[in-house]
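cron nightly-structures :: item 1 of 1
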Amino acid sequence: MSVLVKTILSVKGRNVVTIGPNVTLAEAAKVLEENRIGAVVVVGMENRIVGIFTERDVVTAIGRHGAESLNKSVSALMTANVYRCGEDATVDELMEVMSTRRFRHVPVEEGGQLVGIISIGDVVKSRIREIETEAEHIKAYIAG
């Protein structure tokens, strides 16, 4: 049985770094660097998700618009159609979606409110723990 997102969040915490849609690319890049993260959730009124801004978005913006992109707002550069999940999504479901759609961060939402974020690293760590636990059970069964 696959681990739930709720379980991962209880271990890693629910803190999510967010920015507003009017922040510039330069400011958003600074937030990413200072927090040593690969994505920041863009929130609007009432802490509702309006987009996600990632390292890939930084590279795309600079590649397309050059240095002038540094002063553009993230609302013009972010991914607006954000895939999100609930706390009862499973790690297996997230692995499938993340690999199929080729993204590395999924905001977690409950009742329209941002309650956490799951990265591909979180998914991999969870899967490794699952496999290690399963191996221990098999060893105990064989030894018993």
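cron nightly-structures :: done
Residues 45 and 71 are 23 Å apart (CA to CA).
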